[in-house]
Amino acid sequence: MNKKTLAVAEEALLDFMKKNFQEFNIYRGRIIKSKTIRKPNQQMLSAAVQKVNWYKVELHELEGELEILREELDQAEESDNLEGQDG
Fold first, then answer.
1. Helix, strand, coil proportions of the chain in percent (round to 5)?
2. Whole-angstrom distance, CA of residue 10 vs CA of residue 27
3. Residue 86 gets which letter from DSSP?
4. Region 48-67: what's the mean pLDDT?
5. Residues 6 or more apart whose Cβ sits within 8 Å of residue 13
6. What span, in angstroms and rounded, lies between the C-alpha atoms of 28 and 45?
7. What's the CA gap between 53 and 66, in Å, rounded?
8. H-helix or E-strand containing 41?
9. Of the candidates 83, 29, 28, 81, the residue with the CA atom closest to the CA atom of residue 59
10. Nearest Cα to Cα of residue 48 among 73, 28, 25
């Protein structure tokens, strides 16, 4: 992949991570809010806990993919720099 393709992929991945993090915060907020309610809806709370756990895993995996993508981008930049020095 060239640098432009990697940069576009990185931006798309960051946008997707941002969306997932916002949704993670929504469900985490529901869990926090439920602690202030005397008798919270247990079904809603259980669903929120499951979603929070799912988003934690998803965000962790996306961070790993982003790190790999950034390493590829660094390698592409290094190879461009080496080619520029040879010419």
1. 90, 0, 10
2. 26
3. H
4. 94
5. 62, 65, 66, 69
6. 10
7. 20
8. none
9. 28
10. 28
Query: How far is it, in rounded angstroms, from Cα 26 to Cα 61?
Result: 20
3-34 and 42-86 are packed helices; what angle lies between their axes, rounded to 10 degrees? 160
Residues 41, 33: Cα–Cα separation, whole Å = 11
Q: What is the pLDDT of residues 15-25, one digit of tens each?
A: 999 999 999 99
Contact 20, 59 (CB under 8 A): yes
Share of the chain above pLDDT 90, in %: 51
What residue type is assigned to position 84 of the chain? G
